[in-house]
Amino acid sequence: MNVYQRCVLWSASNSYLRAIILRQDVCRHSVVYKKCRPTLKFQTISRRFQVTAAPSPTEQLTGKSHRAVGRWLLACSGMAFGSIVLGGVTRLTKSGLSMVHWHPFAEFPPSGQHQWEQEFLKYQEYPEYKASDREMTLAEFKRIWYIEYIHRMWGRTIGAVFYTGAAWFWWHGCLSRRAKVHVSLLAVGLAFQGFLGWFMVKSGLQDQPHVSQYRLAAHLGTALAWYSLAFWSGLSHLAARPGPTTALLSAAMHKGVHGVLGLVFVTAMSGAIVAGLRAGLVYNSFPKMADRWVPSDIMALEPKLSNFTENPTTAQFDHRILGESVVVVVTGLWLWGRKQPLPPRAKKALHCLLATAWLQATLGVSTLLTYVPVSLASSHQAGAVTLLSVALWLAHELKLLRRIPK
């Protein structure tokens, strides 16, 4: 009996699927026409033929490439995490102004005693050394110089890994349209971050013996934004979609998580102002500031608005309030989220958010009470990035759930 067999052929010379109808006698032992590629599987259902095309190698490669892009983005975000922590160590050890010149590529350590002495003499010409209340030895200078050098070279390593990976994945067509937008933003942001780093250092090589707190906050804010985008995009490539569910999640829960994200970011920015003003070295007591809840010199400067970014007392007071607000809001979100129909991964992220918030608050208080030691202060900065990461993770887990009005 003659029937019309319908099959779909992949055409290598075209970018679309071309339908071809082949007329052929089909029986149980018939041979499928050899030009019908890829392999066709026939299933007889109610005397009809159902044709299914086997998955093409291109489709399999796309899935592998998608995961590879995700791993690369998460690796870049992990390197950025390390750079943020290393930047904190550089600031805490007063190493950031030890290298008084900048070049995008040709920066190498001095090769001999004479070159080291010349480098040390250059550093002595700038305000930070002149404002120091003690003599610095050449060995001490080498120590802070290498800390700054490692920080700069780590940033260049991030650039090499990111730009090389971006070029490779883009050239081989492994990036979706959205991924191309993200990668383009990250490429521009990384170059801008390098410029901001030197722009910040330059502010401490002029009239004042320390970097501008405004430029420090801009440098940290750009780093956190870059890290967040790379981390989020990496999760989007790797995280498995949740299984089918009929549970509905309140839209207010989504808003609450995004509110926590914003609050954590603002708190980190206030921490940059505290670091730039060295406000962690005033009022080293908790919960009160000395013997008062609100210190008397909180609005000592004129105009009044300048106190928020130039008065160390006000900067520390604001950072305390913001940090305590993060703990309160996260705790409230956790109590509320426990009653929501969250998937297992989202519940785990919610629990981690609560634990990280309390750990970060503990690190902050400990850093204050012990007069900002390098180990605790750098751990506190790492805790801020960790808290931001967990909040991003939770927001990412919730983004695919169906929402209902509160």
From TrEMBL:
Protein name per Swiss-Prot or TrEMBL: Putative cytochrome c oxidase assembly protein cox15
GO cellular component, one term: mitochondrial inner membrane
Record-level GO BP terms: heme A biosynthetic process
Matching Pfam families: COX15-CtaA
Cofactor: heme b
Organism for this UniProt entry: Amblyomma aureolatum
The protein's annotated pathway: Porphyrin-containing compound metabolism; heme A biosynthesis; heme A from heme O: step 1/1
Membrane topology: Multi-pass membrane protein
Protein location: Membrane
Catalytically driven reaction(s): Fe(II)-heme o + 2 A + H2O = Fe(II)-heme a + 2 AH2
